[in-house]
Amino acid sequence: DSVCADDSRPNIVIILADDMGFSDPGCFGGEIDTPNIDRLAAGGVRFTEFYNCARCCPTRASLMTGLYPHQVGLVFNGRSLKKNCVTIAEALRLAGYQTAMVGKWHLTHTTVLSDPALHQRWLDHRYDPGIPFGPIDTYPANRGFQRYYGVIWGVIDYFDPFSLVEGTTPVADVPDDYYFTNAITDKAVGYLKEMADDDRPFFLYFAHCAPHWPLHALPEDIAKYRGKYDEGWDALRKRRFARQVAMGLFDPANTPLPPVMTRGREWDALSPEEKAFQAAKMETHAAMVDRVDQSIGRVIDTLRETGELDNTLIFFLSDNGASPEVPQRPGYDRSSQTRDGKPILYSGFDRPGPETTYTGIGPAWAN
Q: 3.40.720.10, 3.40.50.2300, 3.40.440.10, 1.10.620.20: which CATH number matches 11-366?
C-alpha cells in the first residue's frame, strides 16, 4: 500500500441494491417502508436522471472500474472482469484507504462442471471438486478488497447461499436462522468497527442481493405488507406515479404513465386464487426491500457510534430496475431441493417467502 494517504479525506460507503425498482423507495414514490433510504435522500442529493447498465454484471463492472462494460469484458452477464483494468478498491488501496466488501460480487464467471447435478451441488457446498468457484485471481479479495464476505455468483438461496466465501475460502455451512441480508449486514458492521479503529480512511462496498429473485423473505417482514397489494398492479402504478408527480420527479405532460406490460392476462381477468398469489409476490418483494432498508439503518448507526458518520460519503443505487424474470425450473444455479432434502416449488400458488419456494415478481409488477 502507498504511504500517500491523507487522513482528512472522507470514508466512502457504496450500497448497491439488486433489481430494486425506481419507484420502490419512499423517496421515489414508493409505499414500501424505507425510512433510512428516505433520510439519506432528504439529507443529500437525489438523482432523477442516473443511468446504470441495465444488467447485473455490466453495471457492477462499470461501478468497479469507471469504464464501459465492453471495455472490461462484461457486455453480458456470465463473464469475469478483465485483469487489465484497475478497480476502485485497488485505486483506493494505493491511495492509503482500507477496503472491504460484503455481498454479491458477480464479476467472476463460475467454472462449469460437465455434470449439471454436480455443478449445482458444488455451488451449494455439497460437493468439492477441489477447485475454486471461478478464476480465483478475479475474486474480490484479489481485486483490491482486504476484507470480503459474500457470494461469487449472482443468484442465491437467501437462507443457504450458493458460492459463499470469506476472503477466498468457501463457507460451507450456515446456521439454521441464516438470512443473507442479515448476515452480510453483520459482517459489514464488524468491518466498519475494525476499520474505524485505524487512522486511515476506509471504503466499504456493500452489494445486496435483495430484492433479486428468488422471493425469499422473513415472515415478520412479509407480515407488514399483507393485503397492501390486493388491488393489483394497475392501482399500484397509478398511486406511485401520482406521488412521483407530486414530488416533482416527473412532469406528466412530458412523461405520462405508460400502459402496463403484463405479458399475460390483465389483473381483472385473474381468478381470486391467482390474484392472491400475485399479491403475495409483491408483498414478499416489499419485505425484501424493507429488510435492505433496515440493513442500511444498521450501517448508519454503526458509522454514528464510531464517530465516522460526518466524515463518510454514502452512495445508494440499484444495478438495474425491477426484474420481469420468473424462474421456471431448476438448473445451473437453481436447485430442485434444499440442502436438507425438501423439494423447491417453481410453480403453483404456494405463497412465496420460504426457502421451499422459488419465483419472481414477473413483468406486470416490475413494470
A: 3.40.720.10
